[in-house]
Write a structure and sequence with these properties.
Elements lengths: L1 E2 L2 H14 L4 H19 L2 H4 L2 E5 L3 H15 L4 E5 L7 H8 L7 E3 L13 E5 L11 H12 L3 E5 L22 E5 L12 H4 L1 E5 L5 H6 L4 E4 L1 H4 L17 E5 L6 H12 L5 E6 L4 H7 L4 E4 L17 E4 L7 H17 L2 E4 L1 H9 L12 E2 L3 H7 L6 H15 L2 E4 L5 E3 L5 E4 L11 H14 L6 H23 L6 H15 L6
Parallel strand pairs: 2-3, 2-5, 3-4, 5-6, 6-7, 7-8, 9-18, 10-11, 10-13, 11-12, 13-14, 14-15, 15-16
Antiparallel strand pairs: 1-9, 16-17, 17-18
Helix pairs in contact: 2-4, 4-5, 10-16, 13-14, 16-17, 16-18, 17-18
The structure holds ligand NAX, adenosine-5'-diphosphate and potassium ion.
Length: 509
């Protein structure tokens, strides 16, 4: 799914109006009808109680006015509050003129703010994508008033006061919604950690935006949902053999952190790799042979940490980092790996301590072979770059980093963001707070290494997208089975199979 900018959203509206030969007023009716259906499917009139609809002067306010009318006609109790305005947009004014006379309406003032008993349903239709500066005056007073009330807030399109796709002053006054219902496509602002407290749970309702316009629109951000990755994973041929699915090498583990190595190993095995060899310190041999008999163990001469790089010629992809430690001898192995992988055009996946070593020895970054995949969480990413001023600055750092080093960088989090050498950023839709516990990232390294080893079947971009999506989906399935607090990385790994099944291409005729 594409993520449009505020300007493109406006252009999509215009294209739809033209293609469907409707007026902008019709499109507003369509959008607000979808919104009303969403709300009515969730709350009956008695569950909703009296809905207070706060309406601004633009088309977002227009949506609110249509919603108020539709709710009223369906038997809901409604009250409309208008922001004072010299001028309203034409469609907003038209819908104000159409508002049934028996819906109570009043203008808000700093000394005339709505009384909102606990639990009141409040619809925020003050400002949408047309917001051009932070809220001030009466609008800011109304939103601050809302902060103090214990209301159930539903934001229309986007919480008022929040910019769609740009940073804003830290002291901006922004509606804190419980639900945000947006039209057709998600907004970049919804995917950034800092905005979670404003956006709440977000939902999309279809409004029939012009499909041709959307197909042509050039965007910098994508939302990777089920439709985006569906069928990208090729089916296995009947006469397949293990040589067709790549031979992966994992370099992982150290004294006390063999668990990370085992998790990466098991995840790699569960992700369709043909063969897997694991290079681990001597201490890991028995552990590995017992917990992952399908993998071959290749032990380092050192007992506690990695000191030597094995010959690389048999491998299609190498994953390095989980639980590996940052000994100097291990740093030398990393440097040698970067040099040799570059010469042999081997696919690389670097995580955890491999990233920390890159962070402390940044000169090594210049050795990254093209299409290397790095998987930092925000702290590891900061070690590779610099502290980000805000979420948007972090995305800018990500984009610049990937373009400079021609690499893929998986910035992990609730909406994991994949940076790519050509610029676009891909936000993953799957995952669960149940994954916020040690070991989930190690599993991702295993998945990515397995899919990069299958480069005969998958491009680097598709390997990354499928890995991130399937890893998150498996985390959700594990959390559904065991609860968010109890599901472990180990459980996620056991669900990878189901996640991959959902992504496999359908049988062809
Ligand atoms: N074609 C359409 O008419 C559709 C419009 N839609 C709705 O339209 C919204 C966008 O509408 P608009 O472009 O009218 O924008 P808004 O409704 O967000 O408001 C823009 C108006 O507010 C003013 N403004 C901006 N920032 C302000 C601030 N901080 N303080 C005071 N005034 C401020 C602007 O000068 C402008 O008059 C979307 O978010 C969506 O809700 C949807 O109904 C989909 C279809
Ligand atoms: N709240 C969340 N929602 C979705 N995914 C999450 C959430 N928290 C963590 N994850 C995922 O779990 C993984 C955690 O990785 P990482 O921080 O490296 O942990 P570890 O080092 O313990 O393996 C990442 O893939 C991340 O995207
Ligand atoms: K709004």
């Amino acid at each position: 799914m594409k993520i449009l900018s505020a300007d493109q959203t406006h252009a999509a509206d215009q294209a739809t109006i033209k293609t469907d030969r409707i007026s902008s007023l019709d499109l507003m009716e369509r959008a607000a009808t979808a919104l009303a259906d969403w709300l009515m499917n969730r709350l009956s009139p008695s569950e909703a109680g009296e809905a207070h609809v706060l309406c601004g002067p633009g088309n977002n306010g227009g949506d609110g006015l249509v919603l108020a009318r539709l709710l009223h006609l369906a038997g809901y109790a409604v009250r409309v509050w208008l922001l004072p305005a010299d001028k309203r947009s034409a469609d907003c004014q038209a819908n104000l003129d159409r508002l049934p006379a028996n819906i109570p309406q009043a203008e808000v003032a700093e000394d005339a703010l709505p009384t909102l008993p606990d639990g009141t349903l409040v619809v925020d239709a003050l400002f949408g994508t047309g917001l051009s500066r932070p809220l001030e005056g009466v609008a800011a007073a109304l939103v601050r008033h809302l902060h103090k009330a214990k209301a159930r807030v539903l934001a229309v399109d986007i919480p008022s006061g929040l910019f769609t796709d740009a940073p804003q002053p830290a002291d901006s006054v922004i509606v804190r919604a419980y639900h945000t219902v947006s039209f057709e496509l998600p907004k970049l602002a919804f995917l950034l950690p800092h905005n979670a407290e404003y956006v709440g749970q977000w939902h999309l309702v279809p409004i029939g935006l012009d499909a041709k316009f959307l197909a042509k629109a050039k965007v910098e951000h994508y939302f990777v949902d089920a439709a985006f990755v569906a069928g990208k994973l090729p089916r296995r041929a009947m006469f397949s053999h293990k040589g067709m699915y790549g031979h992966a090498l994992l370099l992982a583990g150290s004294n006390g952190k063999m668990g990370a190595c085992v998790l990466a190993t098991r995840a790699c095995l569960r992700s369709g790799v043909g063969l897997l060899t694991v290079r681990t310190p001597g201490i890991g041999y028995d552990v590995l042979q017992t917990t992952a008999p399908e993998a071959m163990a290749l032990v380092d001469p050192n007992q506690d940490h990695l000191t030597e790089l094995p010959a690389l010629k048999s491998y299609d992809a190498v994953g390095m980092g989980p639980g590996m430690g940052q000994e100097d001898a291990t740093r030398v192995v990393l440097e040698q790996l970067l040099r040799e992988a570059g010469e042999q055009q081997l696919a690389l996946v670097l995580d955890a301590d491999a990233l920390n070593l890159l962070g402390t020895h940044r000169e090594l970054l210049d050795l990254l072979p093209p299409d290397t995949v790095l998987t930092p969480h925000p702290k590891e990413f900061e070690r590779l770059t610099e502290p980000a001023r805000d979420d948007y600055h972090r995305l800018e750092l990500l984009r610049n980093f990937c373009q400079k080093y021609r690499c893929y960088c998986v910035l992990k989090g609730a909406y994991t963001c994949l940076g790519t050498p050509d610029g676009p950023l891909y936000f993953n839709s799957t995952g669960s707070p149940g994954m916020a516990s040690g070991g989930s990232g190690d599993a991702l390294t295993g998945v990515l290494t397995a899919l990069r080893a299958q480069s005969k079947h998958l491009s680097p971009l598709d390997a990354c997208l499928l890995s991130i999506y399937a890893h998150g989906r498996a985390g959700t399935l594990a959390a559904e089975a065991l609860g968010e607090a109890s599901s472990l990385a180990h459980d996620l790994i056991e669900k990878l199979g189901l996640a991959f099944q959902e992504l496999t291409a359908p049988e062809e005729w």
